[in-house]
Amino acid sequence: MKYFPRGVLALCTAFALCGAPAFAQAPPEPETYRLGDYHAPTPATLKGATVLDTPQAFELWGAKKAVFIDALSHPPKPEGLPKNAVWRDPKRFDIPGSIWLPDTGFGELSEPMVRYFEQGLTRASGGDKSKPLVFYCRTNCWASWNAAKRAIALGYTKVMWYPPGADGWEQAGHPLEERQPEPRD
Fold first, then answer.
1. Strand locations in 71-109, DSSP E?
2. Res 24: pLDDT
3. Structure pTM?
4. Type and span of the H or E element at 51
């Protein structure tokens, strides 16, 4: 058996399992929200936001200089389950202290979801639209890109986007904690 240094093996595994995302070119930034195929390569930029890498996000988190907001969708209960089947939501492990506003990263939101997002941001920021907000979900996930873009449209002025998300955070060896979604009114 041949042994590889840990980083080389991880890179080779990512290349083999994910279609070479480490080498793929980022798509261009669209003018509007992404409306489908939310788990796909994301742009390298988001107009009006600061794009963070893992060390930058970790520094902000450690210094408590920003509110971290997870926009990952909440998995729905599978259709067609027998009535007596027990369904348990999959556990979500997140950046400690973050706020999970699920389903707010879709390209189109219903009016109740828009209100949920707006109320969640108001609570997270204490009503201060200049409060630094870091949006994330998972690697190659458009939900955080859409949510950050939506926050900018709502007038938030210190919006940051962390594309590696909880995946990149975990890969760097940073702590995670179990998270529940913010309640909906």
1. 92-94, 99-100
2. 61
3. 0.83
4. strand 50-51
